[in-house]
Amino acid sequence: MAPGRTPRRALDAAFAAAPREAFLPASQRRFARLDRPLLIGHGQTNSQPRTVRRMLALLDVRTGQRVLDVGSGSAWTTALLAALVGPGGEVVGVELVPELVEQGRANLRPFRLTHARVEQAQPGVLGCPEQAPFDRVLVSAAAPELPAGLVAQLAPDDAVLVVPVAGTLVELRRDARRTRLVEHGAYSFVPLVTDPP
């Protein structure tokens, strides 16, 4: 059976509910409609919309799920995921740069998403193991190899991880019987790190 995908209608609704410009610094908002990465400070970017949409489609997000958003940056992906899981779900964004943690929290505040939050990532720790397991894990930074620590934070059944690995977008799907990996072409992201710059 072919893997599921987040429905187009749900993605359209999520992008309408969390407009990109609301998650950009003032100097970048005029570029919000451009399909390219935009700077958000501290060497980080807000990924281009086409890439974000592709990753969310592969993630196969459903209402009521628990989702981990690794490298949440300005919290745009956190808000999009919150729209997809609905108020019965939960989204935990983790970000290493303290200033971006505060920026992400401030960006989320007007949307009153009580089921979504941004937390400070712990140095040397990938993801949020103390709150695992998660039904879905989205990683918006490039790992040099498949991050075993994040795979370990997935639920044991019907779980999906989407992560750029060594320049290739990877979809990992786990069910009770097996774990499958599918590659989805070349993508460029900032590096995934676990220690502050």
UniProtKB/TrEMBL annotation:
Report whether Transferase shows up as a keyword of the record.
yes
Q: Which GO terms describe its cellular component?
A: cytoplasm
Q: According to its UniProt record, what is one Pfam family this protein matches? A: PCMT
Q: Which GO terms describe its molecular function?
A: protein-L-isoaspartate (D-aspartate) O-methyltransferase activity
Organism ancestry: Bacteria, Bacillati, Actinomycetota, Actinomycetes, Propionibacteriales
Q: What is this protein called?
A: L-isoaspartyl protein carboxyl methyltransferase
Q: What InterPro entries does the record tag this protein with?
A: PCMT
Query: Any idea which UniProt keywords this protein has?
Result: Cytoplasm, Methyltransferase, S-adenosyl-L-methionine, Transferase
Name the Gene Ontology biological process terms. methylation
Record carries keyword Cytoplasm: yes
